[in-house]
Each structure stands twice: as C-alpha cells, then as structure tokens.
C-alpha cells in the first residue's frame, strides 16, 4: 500500500500479516480523501483502530497538523511506528483499547477515523459515535468504516450524514458535525 497524495506521496505503508486486521481498499481510501480533500490542512486527526496507520499517515501527507494513532494490538502499534520512522514527529502512537481512549478523551479533533472490526456490535458502534461526536471541533468529520451488511448507524443529534458510499464489502459513512448557534 502507498500514500496516495501530498508531501509523502508514493511512500510505502506496510501492514501486519494477521487475519484480524483488514487494510482498507485503496479505492475506498482515495474516495474518503477526495471527499474531504480541503479539510486536512492544519487539522487535528484521530485514527482509531489504526491498524497500519494508513488513514492517519495519508492525513499527515495532506497537511494535518497532528495525528493521534490508537490501537490495542502491540503488533499494529509496532507496525505504525515502523511506517512512521522517517516522518516528522507530528503524531503520537498509543497502545490502548479504543473504548478506554474514547471514555477518557480530553482533546477535540477536526477529523476522526473510526474503523472497528467488522464483527464489532452495532450497539457499541452507536455508543462510540455518540461519544466521539462530542469531541469534534467546529464542522469536524467522523469517518466510519463498516461492513456493507452492517445495520445502520444511529446518528447523534449534533451530526449529519455528509456522505455514504459502498466499496465492495466496505461501507464508508462520513458524518459532519452541525454548527451550534
């Protein structure tokens, strides 16, 4: 897998060889980044269930100010660190259960990537999205990656569905925070 665009375009992103992780299809990744292309410059990004770190790395390449990578797998954390070895230090990599991080989150983000395992319970996804919507800045975005057959995600009151697209077995939902007046 390669970085699609930006200052690190063409750099390799290696993944771990483990059936419990599933790298996002390049076409889905490209669709997400094209949809949000003007949102990355100087943004604060959170990459949950980060896996190889491909989403956060692409955000860094496209001008994100800072990316926080969270995964509970030490193998994934080690792979993310290897993938970021030659990058500037505008990131942190944290080995922690995503649920624990969400419950303790203190920062606000412009963009949150949320890519739980496909077998993750929809009720848990809905609770996480509700919680994460409270940690979005301004008109921030939550990008959700689910199986195309997953039940619909319940949207919190303070977000709207910005875009939804299926790529094979992947369903991508992009939620946008609503302005509060």
Features:
seven-stranded mixed beta sheet; 26% helix
What does this structure look like?
With 181 residues, the protein is an alpha/beta fold. The mean pLDDT is 91. It is 26% helix and 28% strand. The longest helix has 12 residues, at 122-133.
Strand line-up of the largest beta sheet: 3-2-1-4-5-7-6
Instruction: Please state roughly what percent of the residues sit in beta strands, choosing from under 5%, 5-15%, 15-25%, 25-35%, 35-45% or over 45%.
Output: 25-35%
Determine Rg (CA atoms, Å).
15 Å
Distance between the termini: 42 Å
The H/E string reads HEHEHEHEHEEE
What is the overall pLDDT average? 91
Taking the sheet with the most strands, its summary is: 7 strands, mixed
The number of helices is 5
Q: Which secondary-structure class do the elements indicate?
A: alpha/beta
Q: Which stretches are low in confidence, meaning pLDDT under 50 for 5 or more residues running? A: none
**How many β strands by DSSP?**
7
Q: What is the helical fraction, as a range of percent?
A: 25-40%
Rough outline: globular
Summary of the model, kept short:
By secondary structure, the protein is an alpha/beta fold. It contains five helices and seven strands.
